[in-house]
């Protein structure tokens, strides 16, 4: 009975969408609706409410990944030429650590929490009950194609949801590996995988799931949010944007160069939180560029194409887009590439202006434009005139500069005197703001993002304050004014 009404509900919603002219692929959407309905029913059955069940599933996920570690590492190499070290450090090992952290803390997070109660509710108690949303949809991007679907999945499992996972179609080997390891080990009514591109994703985002967790571009994020709005499905959007890196004149140049070059050229610059561009104090700009050249040599050698630690661009379309951003006359390092091999040399461009093509959109590749500033207020102003970035990095030893930037610029998250690594802490909520996204996850924040926090006030049946009940009186008004002021 319950299942039928759920299906009817889903069908009515689907009809609604047709009436409003939203294109729905009939076959796909029917299959998706049935999958969502089965998953919602599974969560309603209560299986996933048990903390023991969730812990068991997290352990199983870890074991399954361990058993398939070489398949995953191999797929990451084939799709993005990730070295075994990078594949482990930034994807597989990161996921193990995330699972271990959740296993360690889950019991504590999942407990209903007693919180304070205002005096006006004298004799009552207040509780917060975290509960699963139901069936959550996780859509992943191509750049960390394993980690960026597994990490949200860990949050979804921890919070007691079922999940539909849609890996990126641009990394087909990783997508197939994820599909194999999840399909072979989890029932579809609990964890399902849908592989495919726009069409498959379109059917999924128009379905009445209970939460959509999307990681990808701002452009597609808008499409996802619009589709979700039709069913009033809440969304978490982990998007991108142009993340600035400010370098003032007080820095240790060697250290700054090492940390910037690492964060920028990791995974060929295809990192959502990579420093997109540098804003360098003009006094130290030539010295910093010289140090970054040295650092590139130290990391990747004379010919980065031969380095095991230097990855590849995901596909021709991205390679061509990046090529179009290079202005030869401003290149001071790199600039060359090999389209056949998807190789794009680590490239630094100097004397870049805000009006240059490379500053129009998120670069998402191994091109580092260097802009200069002489007045910090102007540098801050130019950042604040643009969409709020996902990350911001500040290299400085000056406390006043640090306070000023932290107080005056809004951004998702970032580092002082480093790049990218804020992402690795389970204690820091990770997410964007404004055009770089909404919602956050990692560690406890993942659990909370995938949970509805249900608020309950438990009233005493022995004490009954009649103050709020009619008929009102001037005496009652006087009294309530004492409480509500
Ligand atoms: P993308 O937006 O092109 O694709 C992401 C997902 O959306 C893919 O699974 C794809 O199949 C799907 N998709 C693409 N077009 C669609 C459409 N029209 N309708 C429905 N679904 C569609 O992103 P990408 O190129 O894979 O990844 C790069 C972007 O992701 C960058 O902007 C980067 O900054 C961002 N990103 C953000 C984070 C973060 O945590 N904030 C992490 C990684 C990447």
UniProtKB/TrEMBL annotation:
InterPro entries recorded: Ald_DH/histidinol_DH (IPR016161), Ald_DH_C (IPR016163), Ald_DH_CS_CYS (IPR016160), Ald_DH_CS_GLU (IPR029510), Ald_DH_N (IPR016162), Aldehyde_DH_dom (IPR015590), Aldehyde_DH_NAD(P) (IPR012394)
Coiled-coil ranges (or none): none
Keywords per UniProt: Oxidoreductase
Domain Aldehyde dehydrogenase as annotated: residue spans: 24-456
Active site, UniProt feature: 238
SUPFAM superfamilies reported in the protein's UniProt record: ALDH-like
Family according to the record: Belongs to the aldehyde dehydrogenase family.
Protein name, UniProt field: Aldehyde dehydrogenase
Organism: Paenibacillus segetis
Organism taxonomic ancestry: Bacteria, Bacillati, Bacillota, Bacilli, Bacillales
């Amino acid at each position: 009975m319950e299942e039928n009404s759920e299906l009817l509900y889903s069908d009515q919603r689907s009809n609604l969408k047709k009436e409003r002219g939203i294109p729905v692929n009939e076959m796909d959407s029917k299959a998706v609706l049935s999958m969502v309905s089965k998953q919602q029913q599974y969560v309603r059955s209560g299986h996933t409410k048990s903390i023991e069940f969730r812990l068991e599933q997290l352990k199983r996920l870890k074991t399954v990944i361990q058993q398939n570690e070489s398949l995953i590492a191999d797929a990451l190499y084939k799709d993005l030429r990730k070295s075994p070290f990078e594949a482990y450090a930034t994807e597989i090992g990161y996921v193990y650590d995330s699972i271990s952290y959740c296993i360690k803390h889950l019991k504590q997070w999942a407990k209903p929490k007693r919180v304070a109660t205002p005096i006006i509710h004298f004799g009552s108690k207040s509780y917060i009950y975290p509960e699963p949303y139901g069936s959550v949809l996780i859509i992943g991007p191509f750049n960390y194609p394993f980690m960026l679907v597994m990490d949200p999945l860990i949050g979804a499992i921890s919070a007691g949801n079922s999940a539909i996972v849609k890996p990126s179609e641009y990394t087909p080997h990783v997508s197939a590996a994820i599909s194999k390891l999840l399909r072979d080990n989890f029932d579809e009514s609990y964890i399902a995988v849908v592989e495919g591109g726009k069409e498959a994703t379109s059917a999924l985002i128009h379905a009445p799931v209970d939460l959509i967790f999307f990681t990808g571009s701002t452009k597609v994020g808008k499409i996802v949010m619009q589709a979700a709005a039709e069913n009033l499905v809440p969304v978490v959007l982990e998007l991108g944007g142009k993340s600035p890196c400010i370098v003032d004149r007080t820095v240790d140049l060697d250290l700054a160069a090492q940390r910037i070059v690492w964060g920028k050229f990791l995974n060929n610059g295809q990192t959502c939180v990579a420093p997109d561009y540098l804003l360098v104090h003009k006094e130290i700009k030539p010295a910093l560029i010289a140090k970054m050249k040295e650092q590139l040599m130290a990391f990747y050698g004379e010919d980065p194409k031969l380095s095991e630690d230097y990855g590849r661009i995901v596909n021709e379309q991205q390679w061509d887009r990046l090529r179009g951003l290079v202005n030869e006359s401003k290149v001071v390092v790199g600039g060359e590439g090999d389209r056949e091999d998807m190789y794009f040399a680590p490239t630094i461009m100097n004397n870049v202006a805000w009006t240059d093509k490379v500053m129009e959109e998120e670069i998402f590749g191994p091109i580092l434009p260097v802009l200069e500033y002489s007045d910090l207020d102007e540098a801050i102003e130019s950042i604040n005139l643009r969409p709020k970035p996902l990350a911001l990095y500040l290299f400085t030893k000056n406390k006043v500069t640090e306070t000023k930037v932290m107080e005056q610029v809004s951004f998702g998250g970032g580092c002082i005197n480093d790049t990218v690594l804020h992402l690795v802490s389970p204690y820091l909520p990770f997410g964007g703001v404004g055009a770089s996204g909404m919602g956050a996850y990692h560690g406890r924040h993942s659990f909370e993002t995938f949970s509805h926090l249900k608020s309950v006030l438990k009233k005493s049946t022995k004490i009954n304050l009649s103050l709020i009940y009619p008929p009102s009186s001037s005496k009652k008004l006087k009294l309530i004014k004492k409480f509500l002021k």
